[in-house]
Each structure stands twice: as structure tokens, then as C-alpha cells.
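Lecture 7 notes: from sequence to structure.

We start with a single chain of 213 residues. Read the sequence below before looking at the structure.
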Amino acid sequence: MGKDTNLLRDKAYRELKRAIVTGEYGSNSVLYESAISKTLGTSRTPVREALMRLTEEGLVKNLPNHGYLVTAITIKEIEEIFELRLCLEKYVIETALNNDIPINLEEMERQIEEQEKALAEEDFWDSFEADHYFHIALISIIDNGTLINLMRGLKDKPIQSGYRSLRRGGKQSEAILEHKEIVAALRNGDKKSALAALMKHITNAKNRTLGIA
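Now the structure, written as C-alpha cells:
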């Protein structure tokens, strides 16, 4: 596959994902390769490949000969995602601090800075992305590629509600402060405080996503 083809496919993938997560393409909308290719100004091949990737990630469902359905997510699924996130991140923190694994906080701090910059510029998408990569950096504290890939996949669920909740500036500010609390506790090697900060953040993030905080 040529470089140009890869670039077109990746561009189509990024733009489609952003449109789905931000709600431009709402839940239960049906997407058609031909219409999307016209909108993006590209051929159908990169669009088809992008939609196949989004299908694998659970954002859309292939309807044979009838396009692709933007999948919806239930409250139960949201709760399950955050329960799993808590288990994964709690395991990482406990493993790192119980075994005196050196913790490099540089990437987490960089993502906090990216969040703050994006929030100041009211760029909610970049803030949403930085929030996700903060948690990827946290999971990456220990050398476990399987956990990292699992964490990446959780963000790729159809969580449009989470993006919409983060568009409220005050809610993003709360998330940033919670991230800073986690980093401070990790810097001090304080497992109890780190786990408490994580629990607080995951609980609040779930409630923000559900629109009850």
C-alpha cells in the first residue's frame, strides 16, 4: 500500500472518528461510503478502510449493502468501562509502588499542560484527546503492552456523551485538578493518596460522562 493511500486512509479515519465522537454523526445515524467520500473529497477506498477500522473499534456497525450504523452506548456499558478503567489503573499504581518501579511522570505532566492549553483556547477536542493520553501515560508506568492496548481500546468506544460533558469548561478544569492530584501522590510515592485520588477521579469522570456531575 502506497504512502499516499495510507495518508488518505488515516485522514479519513481521524475525521470520521472526530465526527462520531463529537456528535456530528449521532448515534444510530447511517453512514454511506459514497456520501462520506464526497464530503472528504477523496475516493471510496480510504473511506471504506477507515470505516472497517472504526467497525473493529466498535464505533460503527457494518450493515451489509446498507452502509454503516453509528452505534449507541448504554448507561450500563459506560459504567462497565469506568469499572474496568479503575481496575486497570489501580493495578498499575499498586504494582509500581509495591515494587519500587521508577515512575517517569514527564508524559503525564505534558498531557496536563496540553489539557490546560487546549482548555484556554476552548479547543475541546484536543482537551478530550489529552485527557485520554494522560491515562495512557499512567498505564504505561509499568511495562505491559497488553494493558496499554486494552486502555487504548476503551477510548475507542462510542462515548459521545463523554465528549459532550467535557465541553463544559468547568468540568474540564475539575478533571485537570484531579489529574494533578494523582501525579502529586505518585511523585511522593504515596500509594494510599494515589489510589484515593484515582478513585475520586474515575468516579467523577463517570458521573461527568453520565451527566450527573
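The beta strands are 30-31, 60-62, 68-70. Keep this in mind for problem set 3.
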